[in-house]
Amino acid sequence: MVDIFSMAGRRCLVTGGSVSMGRAIALGFAAQGAAVAIHHSAAADAAFGLPNAAAETVAAIEALGVAGFAIEGDFLDPNAPPAIFRRAEAALGGVDVLVLCASVQTRAPFEEIGPEQIEREVLINFAATVALLQVAIPPMRARRWGRVLTVGSINQVRPEPQLATYAALKAAQANLAANLAVQCARDGVMVNNIAPGIVATERNRWRRQDPAEWAEIQRRAAPTIGRAALPQEVVGAAILLCSDAASYISGADLPITAAAHLPAAQ
């Protein structure tokens, strides 16, 4: 049974792969034997205070005995997604597995979200997904093997008021994944979505500065278990859905929430 989770010989591109969940997934794939290219934004890494994140992630991938590559690019540029994919193809010799993890959030009351913020989220959280899938799926279908994993959010089904546009775009991405799953399964290309709940990532590090406040945030966001997930706790699902183990799994929308997406018990 262990063999069906092997990713030996697979070539993977993980967007947003230098930090947090993207990094954890990239390292998980490398540990399973895959060569991995990570996409990253230098500006985003620097904003997190981690300007060397991509290089450090590639070094960690290579330490596992497989090839690793870093590909920098800003999804605010509409031409960037296909160019990033082509660079990954050239580095890896092809892309068998695409994980769409890069995203941004605008945390504000709905009526205060301005046009520039909306455009930024649309470009990074949805338009880049479409552009990458348009170049990634045809060669996968031609080879009759491929895996696409979109990283959604609990906000698809339990939208947070302060994240209205983010939640809407994650729901749109999940719908797109379902649409493509129906189209591509006959060609051996399996398209799935994972929907994590609250995860302790670089993006919400600022919320963890006050331990008491963070404890309350975790209690509200994950009342079933009382804590946020760690980035590595999404890796098992990613390996399942991006390996041969998913040969008959497509169109799944897998919550990684410790049941926090379900109605509270009465």
Explained architecture:
By secondary structure, the protein is of the alpha/beta class. The chain has one domain (2-256): NAD(P)-binding Rossmann-like Domain (Rossmann fold, 3-Layer(aba) Sandwich), CATH 3.40.50.720. The chain has helices at residues 20-31, 42-47, 53-62, 80-92, 115-143, 164-184, 211-221, 235-242; strands at 11-14, 35-40, 68-72, 97-100, 146-151, 189-196, 253-256. The chain has a 7-stranded parallel sheet, sandwiched between helices. α4 runs parallel beside α5 (115-143). The longest helix is centred in the middle third of the chain and has 29 residues, at 115-143. The radius of gyration is 18 Å and the shape is globular.
Short description:
By secondary structure, the chain is of the alpha/beta class. Helices cover 41% and strands 14% of the residues.
Strand pairing plus helix content: what structural class? alpha/beta
On the 0 to 100 scale, the average pLDDT is 97
Say what the CATH topology is. Rossmann fold
Q: Report the strand count.
A: 7
Set out the fold topology:
Blueprint: E1 11-14, H1 20-31, E2 35-40, H2 42-47, H3 53-62, E3 68-72, H4 80-92, E4 97-100, H5 115-143, E5 146-151, H6 164-184, E6 189-196, H7 211-221, H8 235-242, E7 253-256
Parallel strand pairs: 1-2, 1-4, 2-3, 4-5, 5-6, 6-7
Helix pairs in contact: 1-3, 1-8, 4-5, 5-6
Supply the key terms.
single chain, 266 residues, alpha/beta, Rossmann fold, seven-stranded parallel beta sheet, 7 strands
